[in-house]
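User: Please fill in residues for this 142-position structure.
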């Protein structure tokens, strides 16, 4: 192998690794955007529930809440998919770099851990917001 071929191979590996890194950063940015979108819709739902929830009739609440749950479920599903894509991209970067899997166990499970925690938190926020609408519509009389 000539010096040129070695340099070309090294440059090719570096560009592959850089491309995978850019893909990983894009996935992280997309995931952060999805969380922002989730929180925006969540607070819009909470504000609507607080200000007009008690005065809406049952059909309006059903339609409003159904659309809200569908939208938030879709956002949670996309966020979960981004977590899977993040794991696959990290594995690809590890293969490109020739890194040993056994040395870095924490990084191997970090995307799954983040994905599971985010899933639990987002579903918890969805359930809490639905409970808030329920408590606005059905206040306890003391």
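Assistant: Residues filled in for all 142 positions:
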């Amino acid at each position: 192998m000539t010096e040129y071929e070695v340099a070309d191979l090294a440059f090719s590996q570096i560009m592959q690794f850089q491309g995978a890194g850019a893909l990983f950063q894009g996935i992280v940015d997309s995931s952060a955007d999805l969380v922002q979108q989730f929180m925006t819709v969540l607070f819009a739902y909470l504000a609507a529930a607080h200000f007009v929830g008690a005065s809406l009739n049952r059909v309006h609440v059903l339609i409003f809440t159904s659309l809200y749950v569908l939208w938030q479920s879709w956002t949670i599903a996309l966020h979960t998919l981004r977590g899977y894509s993040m794991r696959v991209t990290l594995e690809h970067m590890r293969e490109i770099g020739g890194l040993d899997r056994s040395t870095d166990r924490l990084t191997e499970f970090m995307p799954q851990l983040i994905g599971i925690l985010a899933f639990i938190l987002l579903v918890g926020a969805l359930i809490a917001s639905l409970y808030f609408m329920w408590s606005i519509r059905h206040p306890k009389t003391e």
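For context: The chain has three helices and no strands.
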